[in-house]
Design brief:
Layout (H helix, E strand, L loop, with lengths): L30 H107 L1
């Protein structure tokens, strides 16, 4: 009998190929789960918007009260300023009246003095004319 030699295969020394990784299977979402996700995200957005709206309303409320207080203070300051200005105006009017009275008294005195001077001058003129007439007659 003849023995059959077994073939010994030589191993190849070369580049080994990496085994191909299997694709991961992505599980598709069902329509009901998509609807639930959409509803929950919509609800979360709605809640966040409501919180923002409440915060804005609160801020506006505080701003309105602060503006009201500032307006009251400004109004009070304006009223105080009006009182001061009115008192100054009254004082100025009193001074003006006094000045008018003083000037009227001075005018009367000046008129009286003017009339007195005029009468005196007329008397002097009469005396001078009489004297001149007497001197002419002589």
């Amino acid at each position: 009998m003849v023995e059959v030699k077994k073939k010994v295969s030589k191993k190849k020394t070369g580049i080994r190929k990496k085994p191909v990784t299997k694709k991961k299977t992505v599980r598709k979402k069902t329509k009901s789960s998509q609807k639930a996700d959409a509803a929950s995200s919509r609800q979360a957005l709605s809640d966040r918007l409501k919180k923002d709206l409440d915060a804005t309303k609160e801020a506006l409320k505080h701003a309105k009260t602060a503006a009201g207080e500032e307006l009251k203070l400004a109004k009070k300051a304006a009223q105080d300023e009006i009182v001061v200005l009115k008192s100054q105006l009254n004082a100025a009017l009193k001074r003006e009246k006094q000045l008018v009275k003083i000037s009227e008294k001075k005018i009367h005195k000046m008129l009286a003095a003017g009339e007195k001077w005029e009468k005196k001058q007329l008397r002097n003129i009469k005396k001078a004319t009489e004297k001149a007439i007497r001197n002419l007659k002589k």
